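Supplementary Methods, section 5.1.

A reviewer requested that the exact input to the structure prediction be made available. We therefore reproduce it here, unchanged from the version used in the analyses.
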Amino acid sequence: MSEALSRREFLKLLSLLPPAYYLPAERTQKNNAGGTQPNILILVFDAWSANHISLLDYPRETTPNLHALAEKAIVYHKHFAGGHFTYPGTATLLTGVHPWTHRGYTAGTQIIAPYHKDNLLGMFDSHNRITYTHNSVADALLRRIIGVTDTYKPRQELYLNDDFWLAKVFAQDYDIASVSWVRVAKMLDDGYANSLFLSRLYEFFQSREINDLLEEYPLGLPAVEGDNYFLLETAIDWVHAQATTLSQPYLGYFHMLPPHDPYAPRREWVSAFADDGYNPVVKPEHVFTTDTPQERLNYRCREYDEYIAFVDAEIQRLFTMLEESNALENTWVVLTSDHGEMFERGIIGHVEPTFHRPLMHVPLMIFPPGQQERVDVTVPTSAVDVVPTLLHIAGKQIPAHLEGTLLPPFNTTPDPERAIYAMDARFSAQLGPFTSGTVMLRKGRYKFTYYFGNEGKYEKLNGKPLYELYDLETDPEELENLFETHPELGQAMLDEIIEKLREKDVLA
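The structure derived from this sequence is encoded token-by-token as follows.
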């Protein structure tokens, strides 16, 4: 008989542990006189495009469970991220201000000092604040704001293989130690490691850890940075444990990597959409194309959709456990993403600086405790709106510096023509002007995108700005660029962007 435990056996044993096992040895107790403060549970699933959610009319049935859960939720149909990849998207979500204010363009630059405290967690000092993410980029942000966090769980502690001992032994120098460990023990791209002995030892223990799980994950286990394997199921169980054992009120920010690449669902979802007959709309290649053939785009799109279906099932499992534990009686649940994913115009993923809807349109659902009906919000909303809305829900003062507004239905008079922004400035100096980048303006039915500069990926522009104007009501697939045929409208939206850049002191 194999000495290794199967995943199902492991989870059975895990369920026998007392809830206190999951908690750190010490926990700050918060004063909740009268018990009136609500709990806030934020669930972020990385790289999750709302364009791929059947609940929001995607042709594939990717989210049947979410569709059922939505009957007790506020569902936002036109919600936009603050950036097109993890760091600016997450930083905007957590600070309630745009990248031109928090200056967190990439994990390399980080958000500026005022927002180490002036963020969602810092504003909820009345709550037990706990954070976790699988994602190393989001983790860089969470470690930056650790001073306003009561419990920060190192991401490696929910991985299957134990690089996490580095964080414990080298707590003050984890970044350096992590790089050294990769160089010494892990096989690099060329197949060599600095220490042949340690690399073989590492591979031996790693293979023992994961081999028993491969039957359930025929495409390979979900992983971070190549071979840091994890199970979404483990993270979902851990979140449930926190929700049922934390001293209240609590605010939990839990940022899961799925459905981010690599797309690795459990076996029951592999090839689930292989013969469904769906073919995505073929779109012209963009200037930032990576020349990916349409056949490859369609194949990866299907794998992504199957991964979303797996995530959908795990979301349902979490809600079922929370309901059975009565953990939702005084808990608001927020379900969203930091950015989307793209399988069109010759591009896969979210690295290229295009700002088309699959990248910028992300899910947002809010589950108020006790709500029994569905509320649909069809006016455009933004990631910067989440912080002020949660403060409102908790009865807290909303700081004047926040750049968002209350989400409907808490805002009873929303402006359907309000300006909604997103941007990429990763190739510009952190404290200088935007010299290369993308700025998107969504206003009413129109979306205008301004690409400029020649640094980094923007070399493809050859020094010439690019303007894209789409009518999202008549052309949701963004097939017809109206900038040439509607020059007055395009110029007005460009002028509005320029004026905002000038106001924020980032105009080059």
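The longest strand covers residues 39-45. These observations are discussed further in the main text.
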